[in-house]
Amino acid sequence: MTIRDMVRILSARVLIGEEKLDTPVYTACCSDLMSDVLAFVDEKTVLITGLTNPHVVRTSEMLDLKCLVFARGKIPTEDILESAEEQGLVVISTKLTAFSTCGMLYEAGLRGVPVPVEWDSKEEK
Questions:
Q1: In degrees to the nearest 10, what's the CA dihedral of 16, 43, 25, 62?
Q2: What are the residue ranges of helices labelled H in the chain?
Q3: What whole-number distance in Å separates Cα of residue 50 and Cα of residue 114?
Q4: pLDDT tens digits, one per residue of 87-100
Q5: Is-contact 21 46, C-beta < 8 A?
Q6: Nearest-angstrom CA–CA distance, 73 and 23
Protein backbone atom coordinates (compact mmCIF):
# COMPACT_ATOMS: atom_id res chain seq x y z
CA MET A 1 0.00 0.00 0.00
CA THR A 2 1.16 3.55 -0.65
CA ILE A 3 0.34 6.71 1.25
CA ARG A 4 -1.69 7.74 -1.80
CA ASP A 5 -3.80 4.59 -1.30
CA MET A 6 -4.31 5.57 2.33
CA VAL A 7 -5.48 9.05 1.33
CA ARG A 8 -8.02 7.52 -1.05
CA ILE A 9 -9.25 4.86 1.41
CA LEU A 10 -9.66 7.38 4.23
CA SER A 11 -10.98 10.25 2.08
CA ALA A 12 -8.17 12.16 3.74
CA ARG A 13 -6.75 15.61 3.16
CA VAL A 14 -3.01 15.93 2.51
CA LEU A 15 -1.55 18.65 4.72
CA ILE A 16 2.17 18.15 4.05
CA GLY A 17 4.19 15.95 1.70
CA GLU A 18 2.15 15.74 -1.48
CA GLU A 19 5.33 14.80 -3.39
CA LYS A 20 5.81 11.66 -1.25
CA LEU A 21 2.40 10.06 -1.67
CA ASP A 22 3.83 7.14 -3.63
CA THR A 23 5.91 6.04 -0.63
CA PRO A 24 5.08 2.43 0.27
CA VAL A 25 3.91 1.61 3.80
CA TYR A 26 3.63 -1.80 5.39
CA THR A 27 2.61 -1.26 9.01
CA ALA A 28 0.73 1.21 11.19
CA CYS A 29 0.44 2.11 14.84
CA CYS A 30 -2.47 3.90 16.49
CA SER A 31 -2.04 5.65 19.80
CA ASP A 32 -2.53 8.90 21.65
CA LEU A 33 0.16 7.86 24.14
CA MET A 34 3.51 8.71 22.62
CA SER A 35 5.24 6.72 25.38
CA ASP A 36 3.53 3.59 24.03
CA VAL A 37 4.61 4.43 20.50
CA LEU A 38 8.20 4.85 21.67
CA ALA A 39 8.05 1.60 23.64
CA PHE A 40 6.55 -0.62 20.95
CA VAL A 41 7.43 0.79 17.53
CA ASP A 42 10.83 0.01 16.07
CA GLU A 43 10.24 0.24 12.35
CA LYS A 44 9.37 2.93 9.86
CA THR A 45 5.62 3.02 9.91
CA VAL A 46 2.50 5.18 9.91
CA LEU A 47 1.23 6.76 13.13
CA ILE A 48 -2.50 7.28 13.52
CA THR A 49 -3.41 9.65 16.34
CA GLY A 50 -5.78 12.34 17.52
CA LEU A 51 -3.05 14.32 19.25
CA THR A 52 -1.88 17.48 17.54
CA ASN A 53 0.88 18.55 19.91
CA PRO A 54 4.65 18.83 19.32
CA HIS A 55 5.26 15.46 21.02
CA VAL A 56 3.76 13.68 18.02
CA VAL A 57 6.29 15.23 15.66
CA ARG A 58 9.19 14.60 18.06
CA THR A 59 8.16 10.97 18.39
CA SER A 60 7.93 10.65 14.62
CA GLU A 61 11.42 12.09 14.29
CA MET A 62 12.89 9.73 16.88
CA LEU A 63 11.41 6.71 15.12
CA ASP A 64 11.90 7.94 11.56
CA LEU A 65 8.21 7.44 10.75
CA LYS A 66 6.89 7.92 7.22
CA CYS A 67 3.45 9.41 7.76
CA LEU A 68 1.24 10.97 10.40
CA VAL A 69 -2.50 10.47 10.15
CA PHE A 70 -4.59 12.80 12.27
CA ALA A 71 -8.00 11.29 13.02
CA ARG A 72 -11.30 13.00 13.77
CA GLY A 73 -10.55 15.86 11.38
CA LYS A 74 -7.79 17.19 13.59
CA ILE A 75 -5.37 19.63 11.99
CA PRO A 76 -2.19 20.64 13.82
CA THR A 77 -0.98 24.22 14.08
CA GLU A 78 1.29 25.74 11.44
CA ASP A 79 4.40 25.41 13.63
CA ILE A 80 3.80 21.69 14.04
CA LEU A 81 3.22 21.30 10.30
CA GLU A 82 6.43 23.23 9.58
CA SER A 83 8.36 20.93 11.91
CA ALA A 84 6.85 17.86 10.21
CA GLU A 85 7.76 19.27 6.81
CA GLU A 86 11.37 19.84 7.93
CA GLN A 87 11.51 16.14 8.86
CA GLY A 88 10.16 15.05 5.50
CA LEU A 89 6.96 13.57 6.93
CA VAL A 90 3.75 13.16 5.04
CA VAL A 91 0.88 14.51 7.15
CA ILE A 92 -2.74 13.75 6.38
CA SER A 93 -6.03 14.32 8.18
CA THR A 94 -9.18 12.23 8.00
CA LYS A 95 -12.59 12.93 9.48
CA LEU A 96 -12.87 9.27 10.51
CA THR A 97 -12.34 8.18 14.09
CA ALA A 98 -9.05 6.45 14.91
CA PHE A 99 -10.92 3.16 15.26
CA SER A 100 -12.54 3.43 11.84
CA THR A 101 -9.27 4.61 10.30
CA CYS A 102 -7.48 1.53 11.62
CA GLY A 103 -10.26 -0.79 10.53
CA MET A 104 -10.41 0.55 7.00
CA LEU A 105 -6.63 0.39 6.56
CA TYR A 106 -6.51 -3.12 8.02
CA GLU A 107 -9.29 -4.24 5.69
CA ALA A 108 -7.26 -2.83 2.78
CA GLY A 109 -4.19 -4.85 3.80
CA LEU A 110 -2.16 -2.61 6.10
CA ARG A 111 -1.11 -4.43 9.25
CA GLY A 112 -0.21 -3.35 12.74
CA VAL A 113 3.30 -3.10 14.06
CA PRO A 114 4.21 -6.49 15.57
CA VAL A 115 4.35 -6.21 19.34
CA PRO A 116 5.98 -8.99 21.32
CA VAL A 117 3.60 -9.84 24.12
CA GLU A 118 4.39 -12.33 26.83
CA TRP A 119 1.35 -13.71 28.60
CA ASP A 120 1.54 -14.94 32.12
CA SER A 121 -0.70 -17.98 32.44
CA LYS A 122 -1.86 -16.72 35.85
CA GLU A 123 -3.21 -13.54 34.24
CA GLU A 124 -5.33 -15.52 31.80
CA LYS A 125 -7.56 -17.00 34.52
A1: 0
A2: 3-10, 34-40, 54-63, 78-87, 98-107
A3: 21
A4: 999 999 999 999 99
A5: no
A6: 23
C-alpha–C-alpha distance, residues 2 and 21, integer Å: 7
pTM for the whole structure: 0.89
Q: Within 10 Å of residue 66's Cβ, how many Cβ atoms? A: 23
pLDDT at 121 over 90: no
Query: Strands 90-93 and 67-70: what pairing?
Result: parallel
Q: At what angle do helices 78-87 and 54-63 cross, to 10 degrees?
A: 10
pLDDT of residue 34: 92
Quote the crossing angle between the two packed helices 98-107 and 3-10, to the nearest 10°: 120
Taking alpha carbons only, the member of 103, 123, 26, 35 closest to residue 65 is: 26
Q: Are 70 and 76 in contact (CB under 8 A)?
A: yes
Distance CA 125, CA 116 (A): 21
Q: How do residues 3-22 score in pLDDT, each as one tens digit?
A: 999 999 999 999 999 999 99
The hierarchical CATH code for the domain 3-112 is: 3.40.1390.20
